[in-house]
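step: validate -> pass
step: tokenize input -> pass
step: predict -> running
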Amino acid sequence: MDMKGKTVLITGSTDGVGRYVAGELAKQGAQVLIHGRDAARAQTLIDEIVARDHVAPAFYQADLSSLAGARQLADAVKADHGKLDVFVSNAGIGSQNSGPQRQESADGYELRFAVNYLSGFLLAYLLLPLSKAAAPSRIVNVASIGQQPIDFDDVMITRNYSGSRAYAQSKLSQVMFTIDLANELKGTGVTVNSLHPATYMNTTMVRAGGITPISTVEQGGAAILHLVEGDDVADKSGLFFNGMNARKANAQAYDEAARRRLRELSLELTGLAG
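step: predict -> pass
step: emit ->
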């Protein structure tokens, strides 16, 4: 895909792999919409891109630890743009951000499930009219190879909590949503895929977990860019990629009953039901 003039929203793009992808797409002439919580950090990215003589990205500040923040972001983007060629749902927190203890979102949901999954779920639906208006267009969910089945009797992990379990459950939720949304959008010209960009990239999230990075943001960024603009994936949808290659996700992702339960719960929790 020729990215010149294309409108691309990347959540969580003031740091880490999202920041790298934003810079690369700006270099290709895309109209990049960056998102984050920190305006000062966003300004340094804008300055870097402008210094390279590329079009300045637009910054949208929002806290996706609340569903109100996700709605605020969607409303702001819809007010400014009539179409969205690519939506990269990249914002997320790791297994140890702000400590190993169980935390809740502003809405009272387990924090990793809320930030990594629910906000992206809500954003995708709220922005869907813009995605459809830009068809052929793409949605890319940045998930992880680290996946753990959802316990539907305790989705918010009130018992036997661990950050790694919460993170892995939220990432599998993204993959399950990807499959469902792809099925829903058949024939619309909007494709939806998810991926594990690279293992333990050199990002703030990884370092916060006390993990020594073994991959670069450039490696992970290349995998994301492949799904954003690669001609070979233009007609592929509902797939999970490990890096550049399509792979099988956790078995629960292919369980239609489990996906239906997750979808019904998600619609209820985000206020989209009915």
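step: describe -> The domain at 7-270 is CATH 3.40.50.720 (Rossmann fold).
step: cleanup -> pass
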